[in-house]
Amino acid sequence: MLNASTMALALANLNGSRQQSGDNLVCHARDGSILAGSCLYVGLPPEKPFNISCWSRNMKDLTCRWTPGTHGETFLHTNYSLKYKLRWYGQDNTCEEYHTVGPHSCHIPKDLALFTPYEIWVEATNRLGSARSDVLTLDILDVVTTDPPPDVHVSRVGGLEDQLSVRWVSPPALKDFLFQAKYQIRYRVEDSVDWKVVDDVSNQTSCRLAGLKPGTVYFVQVRCNPFGIYGSKKAGIWSEWSHPTAASTPRSERPGPGGGACEPRGGEPSSGPVRRELKQFLGWLKKHAYCSNLSFRLYDQWRAWMQKSHKTRNQVLPDKL
Amino acid sequence: MSRREGSLEDPQADSSASPLPHLEAKIQQTHSLARLLTKYAEQLLQEYVQHQGDPFGLPGFSPPRLPVADLSDPAPGHAGLPVPERLRLDAAALAALPPLLDVVRRLQGELNPLALRLLGRLEDAARQVRALGAAVEAVLAALGAESRGPRPEPAAAAVAAATASAGVFPAKVLGFRVCGLYLEWVSRTEADLGQLAPGGPA
């Protein structure tokens, strides 16, 4: 309550404004009616934006994302503006398409130069001040990503119970530039959430998964990293995973082995010393022999023969007993 | 549906107006529209106060009842007037509301730019009240009781300029007032049309 001669007052320990239109400071008469009012905007100046990351989809555009500040909420409407310019010449440009991949993101759809670095930064402004991020310098070719590989097909390998063949097509948008591209495959059993990743699938559009459980449905996905595009030495950015493709391994009459893969990351507990040595042998053959493909085929043929002869022995054994 | 007798007759109405089947349908339709807009107007007012902050929306909130250009509250004696006269006053108020709702929408677009549902409701309200006003004018014309003389040019632009320069709190109060007037006049229109609608009091 104030008296009639009060001309000023100080308000301390205010919480941040709860709505964009500000908090209302009103002057009441004794009967409760409102005589006048004003609005207070209680908040904080923006912090320095940081952690800017950008990517270009098929070298055609650039999308950037950033973190607004370490303490988050300013309680005031804060405007974030992504700016960019060519490093050695050109004027400052302002990104116009915001919130494309989250609240602090912007998309530059066209007119981007290749082979010339860009400088990119974010400016944050509200009623209490402004802040500017550090400048990120990048070349579009070093942050390229692409679409997931289309037409992923997963099929059985003849009668082999523990193998599936995966084939896909290079992402068409960059198909003329992907001779150094890398691919990754991941797969999981139908009712599991644990994916196994095969990441030594460089520059191929097919792979064979081995050591799988017989009679089991598997979901498989593939993604692409357009590494080395136009000679870029940077790591490239993985695409999204392709839509899951399902296939099942043939049933087995004997208990199947545990999990395994064509080149699983981390190895499988069921891989014994023989399997490890065989893997090393095949790796050596790939480097030193010209018939590495032939050896894999031969290995599969040998395995199929082994399974058939194992079944025959089981049929024979009861008679021998 | 039973046939009604004398529901359209108003002893004080123009004696040359004769009830027609399509007029009954038009009145029924307009009455239903007014009932729907009354519900929307209640929702709009609730949504509006939520975005302005306390004490807007609190019980006993009593801002200054500043006059709004071109529009005032229904007069205390409104309900005692002949129905056609009431409808003429309703039509005049409904015609004054759209530019005022547009002003409120523009002001809220600056004060609450992220309140998309509120902004959408304000835009819809302006459009819907135009439709209701046109329907009421059509009923009046069919009754031979249309408004007399031209309406004054709306002063909404002047309202907007004055409010924008007066500050944020007066802008909030203006919007509260306009949303309140919108609710009062559409519910008044609903009640007045109910006097003419089938099943209403003779």
Automatic annotation (TrEMBL), chain A:
For this chain, one GO molecular function annotation is: cytokine binding
Q: Would you say which domain of life the source belongs to?
A: Eukaryota
Q: Which controlled-vocabulary keywords does the entry list?
A: Disulfide bond, Glycoprotein, Immunoglobulin domain, Phosphoprotein, Receptor, Repeat, Signal
Which Pfam families has this protein been placed in? EpoR_lig-bind (PF09067), fn3 (PF00041)
> Where is the stretch described as Disordered?
243-274
Listed InterPro entries: FN3_dom, FN3_sf, Growth/epo_recpt_lig-bind, Ig-like_fold, Type-I_Cytokine_Rcpt
Q: What is this protein called?
A: Fibronectin type-III domain-containing protein
UniProtKB/TrEMBL annotation, chain B:
Determine if Secreted is one of this entry's keywords. yes
Disordered: where is this region? 1-25
Organism the protein comes from: Ovis ammon polii
- Principal subcellular localisation of the protein: secreted
Name of the molecule in the record: Cardiotrophin-1
Name its GO BP terms in alphabetical order. cell surface receptor signaling pathway; nervous system development
Q: Which InterPro entries match?
A: 4_helix_cytokine-like_core, PRF/CT
Report the transmembrane regions from the record.
none
Keywords, ordered alphabetically? Cytokine, Secreted
